[in-house]
Design brief:
Number of helices: 17
Number of strands: 16
Radius of gyration: 23 Å
Strand order of the largest sheet: 4-11-10-9-8-5-6-7
Distance between the termini: 46 Å
Length: about 450
């Protein structure tokens, strides 16, 4: 057992040891119930400190791969549920007394298209004749293909963007695989990757998204299984990737054909930037997820997955053993909303409204010397001197925002909070004053002080 593990370890850091053991567990080389070497024996054999091995064991325990039984030792855990949502939980817990909850990251209900006419036009709604019908309405698939930013080998529809990511991760990622994400990244994605025991590495971003040079250097040093990114209205920073950056990243990834690119276009039609995808350059490596929650309604619970047939087919076939398909009634509603001129105009009006809200709040904050970005989508990413103090002070003013820590794979240069700017329809100046007071502390620990005008979100 000891030799088996040491032979598998390529990187003798805590992360590398955990990943190596994770891969052995995933492959079945270390079956459930196998007793692992002691920390001291493992450390001696690898030539590292016991602390390093202990950290690796802790990572595997958090991921649910191993279990400690006191003096009996540490054993490979049987397959089962792991504790999920660690980062996601950190974003919740809004005080009940809060009058203005800007922590949610949800769209403004008043800006969603009206479903009344679409529901009326459905008639009796008899859209399913057999459990073996195609999972996607043919008419909806045709419309989706026309809208797709690349040419997908296959399309399917699932129950929202997070369901899509969950299913793609289950298909693509195995325990111990190295996975690259943006830093910062969306906390539920990080929770999902942790749940399958992936080793997550964050890549810094600039004003156009992931930095190509740093991505190339990282992949050259640490071979990865997948890259997850948000091409438009990145949550939390609002960054949208221009086509030129997509081409640069595709050029980097062309040298790493084993890396699967998974794009989460969560903002959809409310994003100001045009659709973009690395799939235009790397169709056999790119899986694109198009969500309709923020643009057409969270309760539609619909997102489309398009990409290489080998991956999308696995997702669709696995669903046949569970839910089978996403409601064709809801698919018909979405089809109507995507093709009806009135609904299309409502979504366009919402996109413009979100743009104006972001600009107004951002201008008021910049006037007060606050470093923030809100380039696209519904969120604003604001630098603060101290996250906890900012959260407490804003709560005292009846305002809730999301802490920045759960979004960070590794710490950024300063603390941040995320503000759902899309929910702010008025009172921009007063809100900006409260946000600025919480963000910038003077030398005595309270009040605002001047800052240079912000040049970027970092």
């Amino acid at each position: 057992m000891l030799a088996l593990i040491t032979d598998a370890v390529e990187d003798r850091s805590a992360r590398g040891i955990a990943a190596a053991v994770g891969r052995l567990v995933s492959a079945g080389t270390l079956p459930a119930g196998s007793r692992l070497p002691t920390v001291r024996d493992m450390a001696r054999e690898l030539g590292v400190s016991p602390t390093t091995v202990s950290e690796a064991w802790q990572s595997l325990t958090r991921a649910g791969a191993i279990r400690t039984r006191g003096r009996s030792g540490t054993f490979v855990a049987p397959p089962g549920l792991t504790r999920l949502g660690r980062r996601y939980v950190q974003m919740s817990g809004v005080p009940a007394a809060v009058a203005r909850d800007l922590s949610t990251g949800v769209p403004d209900h008043d800006l969603l298209p009206d479903l009344t006419d679409a529901l009326k036009r459905l008639g009796d709604g008899r859209l399913t004749s057999s459990y073996l019908d195609a999972p996607v309405l043919p008419e909806l698939e045709e419309v989706l293909r026309e809208r797709w930013p690349s040419r997908p080998g296959q399309l399917t529809v699932v129950d929202g963007a997070m369901d899509a990511l969950d299913r793609v991760i289950a298909t693509v990622v195995r325990f111990g695989d190295r996975v690259v994400v943006e830093n910062p990244a969306f906390p539920p994605l990080l929770d999902l990757l942790q749940a399958v025991g992936a080793t997550v590495v964050g890549v810094p971003m600039d004003e156009h998204g992931i930095a190509p040079g740093q991505l190339r250097a990282l992949l050259a040093e640490f071979p990865a299984r997948a890259l997850f990114l948000q091409p438009r209205a990145h949550n939390p920073t609002g960054i949208s990737m221009p086509p030129e950056r997509a081409a640069e990243l595709a050029g980097v990834l062309a040298g790493f054909p084993g890396v699967v690119v998974v794009e989460d276009d969560h903002a959809g039609d409310i994003a100001s930037a045009a659709p973009v995808s690395l799939g235009r350059h790397l169709p056999e490596q790119t899986v694109h997820v198009a969500s309709f929650s923020k643009s057409h309604g969270p309760d539609l619970r619909l997102a489309a997955i398009g990409g290489p047939a080998a991956i999308v087919e696995q997702v669709a076939e696995r669903r046949l053993l569970g839910p089978g398909w996403s409601s064709r009634l809801l698919q018909a509603v979405l089809l109507d909303l995507l093709t009806d001129p009135g609904a299309t105009a409502q979504v366009a009006a919402a996109r413009h409204a979100y743009l104006q809200r972001r600009r107004q709040l951002l201008a008021c904050l910049h006037h007060r010397g606050v470093t923030a970005t809100a380039a696209d989508g519904i969120n604003l990413w604001m630098a603060v001197d101290d996250q906890q103090i900012a959260l407490v002070e804003l709560a005292a003013h009846g305002i809730a925002v999301a802490p920045g820590t759960p979004f960070c794979v590794t710490p950024l240069g300063s603390d941040h909070v995320r503000v759902t700017a899309g929910l702010v329809a008025d009172g921009f100046d007063d809100l900006a004053g409260a946000l600025a007071s919480a963000a910038i502390r003077d030398s005595r620990g309270s009040g605002t002080r001047a800052r240079p005008h912000p040049r970027g979100w970092r």
